UniProtKB/TrEMBL annotation:
Family designation: Belongs to the glycosyl hydrolase 27 family.
Protein name per the record: Glycoside hydrolase family 27 protein
Taxonomic lineage: Bacteria, Bacillati, Actinomycetota, Actinomycetes, Bifidobacteriales
UniProt cross-references to Gene3D superfamilies, sorted A to Z: Aldolase class I
Gene Ontology BP annotations: carbohydrate metabolic process
Record GO terms (molecular function): hydrolase activity, hydrolyzing O-glycosyl compounds
Keyword list, A-Z: Glycosidase, Hydrolase
């Protein structure tokens, strides 16, 4: 659970902006589980600009071709200190510090044929000019059949570890799926962790067309992996994630997570790649949908909006303790209902939307924290149509056939934690096999509940 600078600042975030977000997170969101700050792409480009990348940019590198923060945007990095001072300030707030980096080796290092730290090799010898990023001009690939390629990643990760980096978002890894590069980066992290005794999380990006057949390899080499390309504040972007998360949710395990991408919530687009300066265009109901879906799918939660200038309503939404509770404390998560609803059942042209239901069982957290709803269950009733719809769900499909007649209470996970009473908008009606949960679900919205034995 954290913040990433991409949706707000694109390639241009500054040290002051990172620290402002860190202070807001520490003050308002840390108690709800938000704890990581990530500086996204091009922190080493002094010519970085909104809405795109710069070909032949004069990247800031050390004598071995390793990226250094631009000292104009990150003044504490001057004098070769790198991100060490900024990471220390973030750590003092009780938070973790992360950075983005591209797969491969900077083109400038290859053009200058800089030495690979700790070896007799040079950048030209280890570069792979045939496997370059399709959308970013900064780097060449690395030839993983050459021993100097692993040495270059080892040296890069050694520097990151010295700075105190906790989280690494490594881009251009999965589309195409560069298994040799992923494994090499994993080995470099392991070496740095052994040397410095400092754990680092590896997040792989982007995620277009990542097949679930890669899951064992991914679990062995990374903690997070994206399952889609970039997502923005458009309803169709969110709608597309239902199917992806339905594929991946049964494969989620503690410590290794399929990632449905950043949450475009709050104040975004200040100097971003896409769109103008704006508060998220998602409606309030769509914002609840994305959060509930990500939590029920146990996706990492990484918000993209500038926290100090986001609305109080956004911060309140992010501070909901149910987000961490369900993401960290649930099991057997998955989609159990998905039905296309037409106004006239035989007329596809009268399509209204999809009724989608997810369920999960309450479970203790991996760190031993007891579940807030031990012995209970979670359910999310989603409606993708434009207008509100009265929906129902067989109670036994969530709590089990043997438990359907037991007394159950409903808790609205968007509310104040109070129990929903009979006759309220979310309720249980009927008996036996006819016992159902009924609710009015907003357009593009969700009803998100916990069910507990009385």
């Amino acid at each position: 659970m954290g913040w990433n600078s991409w949706d707000s600042y694109g390639t241009t975030v500054t040290e002051d902006e990172v620290l402002a977000n860190a202070r807001t997170m520490a003050a308002e969101l840390k108690p709800a589980g938000w704890d990581t700050l990530v500086v996204d792409i091009a922190w080493y480009d002094p010519t970085a600009r909104a809405h795109g990348y710069n070909a032949n940019a004069p990247l800031v590198l050390d004598e071995y071709g390793r990226q250094l923060p631009d000292p104009v945007r990150f003044p504490s990095a001057a004098g070769g200190k790198g991100f060490g001072p900024l990471a220390e300030k973030v750590h003092e707030l009780g938070l973790k510090f992360g950075i983005h980096v591209m797969r491969g080796i900077p083109r400038i290092a290859v053009d200058k044929d800089l030495p690979v730290y700790g070896t007799e090799y040079t950048a030209k010898q280890v570069a792979d000019l045939d496997h370059v990023c399709r959308w970013n001009p900064d780097n060449y690939g690395l030839n993983q059949s050459h021993p100097g390629a692993q040495a270059w990643y080892d040296a890069q990760l050694d520097q990151f570890a010295q700075w105190g980096v906790d989280y690494l978002k490594v881009d251009d890894m999965q589309t195409p799926f560069y298994s040799e590069e992923i494994h090499a980066y994993h080995l470099a992290i392991e070496k740095a962790e052994r040397k410095y005794g400092h754990p680092m999380v590896l997040s792989l990006s982007p995620g277009g067309w990542v097949a679930t057949t890669h899951v064992d390899f991914l679990r062995n080499n990374a903690e997070l992996w994206r399952i889609s390309d970039d997502l923005w504040d458009k309803w169709l972007d969110i709608y597309a994630q239902f199917a992806r998360l339905a594929r991946w949710a049964p494969l989620q395990t503690n410590g290794h997570w399929a990632d449905a991408d950043m949450l475009p919530l709050g104040h975004i687009g200040l100097r971003a790649e896409r769109g103008d300066d704006r508060q998220s265009k998602l409606t309030a109901d769509e914002q609840r949908t994305i959060l509930a879906l990500w939590a029920m799918g146990r996706s990492p939660l990484m918000v993209g909006g500038d926290l100090p200038t986001s609305t109080p309503e956004t911060l309140k939404l992010l501070a909901n303790p149910a987000l961490r509770e369900v993401t960290a404390g649930s099991a057997n998560n998955g989609e159990i209902v998905r039905e296309r609803i037409n106004r006239h059942w035989s007329d596809d042209a009268s399509y209204l939307g999809d009724y989608i239901v997810w369920k999960a069982d309450a479970a203790d957290w991996a760190d031993g924290t007891a579940s807030a709803h031990a012995g209970g269950h979670y359910a999310a009733l989603f409606w993708t149509g434009d207008e509100p719809r009265e929906c129902e769900l067989a109670l036994q499909s969530v709590v089990g056939i043997d438990a359907r007649n037991e007394p159950w209470t409903l808790t609205d996970l968007w509310g104040d934690g109070g129990v929903a009473e009979a006759g309220s908008d979310v309720r249980i009606e009927g008996e036996g096999s006819d016992r159902v949960v009924k609710a009015t679900v907003p357009g593009h919205g969700v009803v998100w509940i916990a069910l507990d034995r009385r």
